[in-house]
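Project outcomes to date are best conveyed with an example. Our students and postdoctoral researchers have been running inverse folding experiments weekly, and each run begins with a structure described purely in C-alpha cells. The record below, which covers 117 residues, was selected by the lab manager from last quarter's runs and is presented without edits.
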C-alpha cells in the first residue's frame, strides 16, 4: 500500500513505466477521440484508454506535487486524499463510459449548441 500511496518516490520502476504508458495512452487516444465517429468502436476504445490513463497519470503526478510542495508531516494525509480522488476519478469515468454517452461524447457536448425545443 505504501508504494501506491507514494507512487512518485516509493513506486519504483513499475510506477515510472505505468506513468510512461499512461502518457502514451493519452497522447494516442486524444487524436483518435477527436476524429472518431459518434458511438463507434474507435471512440469507445479511446474512452476506455482514458478511463485507465487519466487516473494513473494524475495519481502519479499529484504525488510528485505532494512530495515537492508539502512538508513531510502533511504528506501522508495528502497522499491518502490523492489516492481517494484517483479512485473516484476512475469510477466516475467508468460510470460515464458504461452507463452514459462516454467520456469523449461528454466532452464534445461542451462545444455543441443546445438543441432548440
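After processing, the design step wrote out the following sequence:
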Amino acid at each position: 500500500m505504501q508504494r501506491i500511496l507514494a507512487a512518485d518516490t516509493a513506486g519504483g520502476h513499475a510506477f515510472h513505466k505505468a506513468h510512461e504508458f499512461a502518457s502514451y495512452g493519452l497522447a494516442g487516444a486524444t487524436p483518435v477521440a477527436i476524429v472518431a465517429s459518434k458511438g463507434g468502436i474507435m471512440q469507445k476504445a479511446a474512452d476506455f484508454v482514458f478511463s485507465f490513463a487519466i487516473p494513473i497519470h494524475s495519481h502519479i503526478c499529484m504525488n510528485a506535487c505532494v512530495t515537492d510542495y508539502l512538508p513531510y508531516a502533511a504528506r501522508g494525509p495528502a497522499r491518502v486524499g490523492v489516492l481517494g480522488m484517483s479512485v473516484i476519478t476512475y469510477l466516475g469515468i467508468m460510470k460515464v463510459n458504461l452507463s452514459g454517452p462516454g467520456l469523449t461524447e461528454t466532452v464534445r457536448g461542451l462545444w455543441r449548441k443546445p438543441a432548440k425545443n
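The chain has five helices and no strands. The domain at 2-108 is CATH 1.20.1300.10 (3 helical TM bundles of succinate and fumarate reductases). The training component of this project remains on track.
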